[in-house]
Amino acid sequence: MRLIGYKRIHGIIRLKSGLRIGMSKDQMAIGDVDNPVIRNPLTEEPYIPGSSLKGKMRYLLEWHLGGDYISRSSERHVYVPDDPKDPVGRIFGSAPSNEAQRRIAQERGPTRLLVRDAYLTPNSKQALERMTARGGYLTEVKQEVFIPRIGGNANPRTAERVPAGAEFAFEMVYRVMDTGDGGQTDRANFHHVEKALELLQLDGLGGYISRGYGQVELDYRVEEK
After folding, report:
1. What integer pLDDT is reported at residue 76 of this predicted model?
2. What InterPro entries does the entry give (predicted)?
3. In degrees rounded to 5, what are phi and psi of residue 3?
4. pTM, rounded to two decimals
5. Buried b / exposed e across 181-220, counting CB within 10 Å, b at 16+?
6. DSSP 8-state secondary structure symbol assigned to residue 209
7. Do 137 and 124 contact (CB within 8 A), yes or no?
8. Helix 184-202 with 50-65: angle, nearest 10 deg
9. What is the rounded CA–CA span in Å between residue 29 and residue 171?
10. How many whole angstroms separate alpha carbon 58 and alpha carbon 213?
11. What is the DSSP string of 4-35?
12. Could you write out the DSSP letters of every residue in 119-151?
């Protein structure tokens, strides 16, 4: 097995509606919003974790392919077939839990897709700084109302989100490995990555997608290395 090349995917994630990727509320202070967004602890700027991007891409691709990916997955664990050529296992990787799976993972080789954290572009950061005086830093605080089915009294709740129009620079790297086929299998599997990016734009990213949050548009290009 030998690493013979890379495909670098890089570009812009543009928010078409507010984005909320949540963080732990363990350190909330009095007066904080109910649902804060995740932030870089050094800069306090909201960002999109690579794990969120990669996880949503895998989720959407598995639903697109269907079959055992869905029917044999458990509540918290994904299903990976015992086939070193399985495209989802090769692209997104797996965590083997027994000796047989470890041998298959060794034959399959390293995870092909690396997904970096995505950060605000300088232009978007500058535009969002004007919002500081009106609420959260580089974010908006959206108030919603929950109406109990019995009683009917409105209960307000707040959610922090990155507003529509913000842009994040993102980068992914796809490894092409020669597993005795000259890299043919990995090159052929790359269309699954592009399909996952297409599905991401049709579905959404982060939380509350069914309530209008998380619609994104991608502008990217692919470079061979």
Report:
1. 76
2. CRISPR-assoc_RAMP_Csm3, CRISPR_Csm3_endoribonuclease, RAMP_III_fam
3. -80, 120
4. 0.89
5. eebebbeebbebbeebbebbeeebbbbbbeeebbbbeeee
6. G
7. no
8. 100
9. 34
10. 20
11. EEEEEEEEEEEESS-B--B---TT--TT--SB
12. EE-HHHHHHHGGGGGGSSTTSEEEEEEE--TTT
Q: What is the pLDDT of residue 36?
A: 84
Q: How far apart are the first and last CA of the chain?
A: 18
Length of the chain: 225
Residue labelled with tokens 């306090």? 44
Alpha helices in the chain (DSSP H): 50-65, 68-71, 87-92, 99-108, 122-128, 184-202
Q: In this structure, what token pair is assigned to residue 158?
A: 């707040």
pLDDT per residue, tens digit, the chain (225 aa), is 999 999 999 999 999 999 999 876 555 554 556 678 899 999 989 999 999 999 999 999 999 999 999 988 887 788 888 899 999 999 999 888 888 888 988 999 999 999 999 999 999 998 888 877 555 578 888 888 888 777 777 778 888 899 999 999 999 999 999 999 999 999 999 999 999 999 999 999 999 999 999 999 999 999 998
